[in-house]
Amino acid sequence: MNRQELSPALARLSAALSAALSAALLVPAAQGEPADWTQWGGPNRDFVAPAGDLAEKWPEAGPKKLWQRDLGDGYSAVLVEDGRLYTMYRSGEKEAVIALDAKTGETIWEAAYESGPQEGHVSQFGDGPRATPLLVGDKLFTIGISGVMHALQKSDGKVLWSHDLWKDFGGNFLNHGYSSSPVEYGDTVIALVGGEGAGLVAFDQKTGKVAWKSTSFKNSYSAPQILKVNGKDQLITYMADELIGVDPANGELHWRYEITNQWKQNIAMPVLVDGKHLMLSSLQAGTRGLELVEKDGVTTFEERWSTRKIQFYHVTTVREGDWVYGVTGGGAPHFIAAVNARTGEIGWRQRGFTKANCVGADGKLVILDEDGKLHLAETSDEGIDVLAEAQVLDKPSWTAPTVVGSTLYARDKKVLVALDLGKGKG
């Protein structure tokens, strides 16, 4: 991808290493039953799927539809575990958490509760929940559009404990609704809140008691990640005006890097390469590269590069080696692009896509755009090659798809669909 010039020997070595790394990143580590998808972003929270062999071409009508069912308003992604699906939606004045049979789409259980959007909410894009639930052991953790958090019994949806993050902890109101998907760490579940002294809050998974609270940064629309920085766990997340790194065991702030825009909408999750090179991207502010340095137990950073030619907005990206792929741009035009997370080099930008979410699967990119068109593509040094595409949903299709094995689960604002992307089955 317009890589820096290398000697022939080094070039061959680089190509071999890149191919090996690509295989390790985009292909499941073991054969047999596919891994589950129990949190936002999949097994490693990086939108690389536990995929099987995918077909490289689809019939004219698109991949085989396994089933389709109505589902209410919302953008929560679909979780998969042990033959069940879990997600959230809105029906009238109630939010609902639902468990479905993965093979048929039939309801197993549903837990609904009164929770309308707050005054000042922008209803133009719907009133359904935005955050994706989290499965840990026998529990399912959910957060609704107004910041109401529940711990549910996974087997039947019984409520074990709950908190109102905005009321109980003074979390800041977001006019597009609470959107941050929680993350697990040890015996805790950590949520972004945005309150005074409670920018982040960790709860004991069993009891819901506060394990720790820290910082007073206002929340935005992104989700936290637990990443290995120089060999040590750090929770790295956007807030409204900054990217921060904290100790997930106690909430201690390690570092803060300012990045903001006029809407305070930091959304697309940062990407870490080699445990220390961090790529971050936001609307208006553009894309930047930081090197995180550990010395005497203290993490500092140095900005290595910056460009405004790449601006990942409310989309998911996929990393392959040092390269990150995603659709850039807030409004039209949009480009799918490759950017080097270490150096900031732009490998290519290519037209032909609207705003879209990407998932890495079987060495390919599965791309669902906001118009409901599904694409299967391969990348190269020169650009992207679309192998197949089909209209599978309606606009807006803003929810990132889930791919487990050869099955894709995707939703728009009305329906949830399961598609078979496997070889010889389309």
Shape: globular
Distance between the ends: 32 Å
Number of helical segments with 4 or more residues: 2
Structural class: mainly beta
Radius of gyration: 21 Å
Provide mean pLDDT, rounded.
91
Share of helix among residues? under 10%
Low-confidence stretches: 1-32
- The percent range for strand residues is 35-45%
- Biggest sheet strand order reads 1-32-31-30
Summarize the topology.
Elements: H1 8-26, E1 64-70, E2 79-81, E3 84-91, E4 94-101, E5 107-114, E6 134-136, E7 139-143, E8 148-153, E9 159-164, H2 165-169, E10 183-185, E11 188-195, E12 198-204, E13 210-214, E14 225-229, E15 232-238, E16 242-246, E17 253-258, E18 271-273, E19 277-282, E20 286-295, E21 298-307, E22 318-320, E23 323-328, E24 335-340, E25 346-350, E26 356-361, E27 364-369, E28 373-379, E29 384-391, E30 402-404, E31 407-411, E32 415-420
Antiparallel strand pairs: 1-32, 2-3, 3-4, 4-5, 6-7, 7-8, 8-9, 10-11, 11-12, 12-13, 14-15, 15-16, 16-17, 18-19, 19-20, 20-21, 22-23, 23-24, 24-25, 26-27, 27-28, 28-29, 30-31, 31-32
